[in-house]
Amino acid sequence: MDGPEFIRQIGRSWEFFKQLTLDRTLIWKASLPVDEDFRRVALAPESFYAEIYRVGLSRSSYNFLLSDYSYFQFSWDSERRLEAGLFSKPLDCRGTRRAGYFGSMGSVRGDGRSVT
């Protein structure tokens, strides 16, 4: 997949959720730029999932937001590296560390390795 095709797929994903009436806000219809503040919190071992989620939401660090306030992040760097992540709205994440949730979120790099 090349960059223009990646961007087309973001648009198609958004249209899919619109057809299901699950859409809320489209922010970026292109590869998401790196947000260093979000990245810092997401990679900190002491961060809880709910905190990571809130930082991404408050900084609009996502491509699009769904009606339930879950959001998607899509990033393309090259044909060998693309990233996609779903951040579901946490119900109650007190006492739950980031690592357990990232495994279940299905955030996987284009090369097949999990994003942590």
List the helices and strands and how they pair.
Layout: H1 3-19, E1 23-26, H2 36-43, H3 49-58, E2 64-66, E3 71-78, E4 81-87, H4 98-105, E5 108-109
Antiparallel strand pairs: 1-2, 2-3, 3-4, 4-5
Helix pairs in contact: 2-3
Any overview of this molecule?
With 116 residues, the chain is of the alpha+beta class. The protein has 4 helices and 5 strands. It has helices at residues 3-19, 36-43, 49-58, 98-105, and strands spanning 23-26, 64-66, 71-78, 81-87, 108-109. Helix 2 packs antiparallel against helix 3 (49-58).
Give keywords.
116 residues, alpha+beta, 37% helix, flat, disordered C terminus
Summary of the model, kept short:
This protein is of the alpha+beta class and 116 residues long. The chain has 4 helices and 5 strands, in the order H-E-H-H-E-E-E-H-E.
Q: Beta-strand level of the residues, as a percent range?
A: 15-25%
**Could you give the count of β-strands?**
5
Succession of helices and strands: HEHHEEEHE
The CA-CA distance between the termini, in Å, is 23 Å
Which percent range fits the helix content? 25-40%
- Our count of helices gives 4
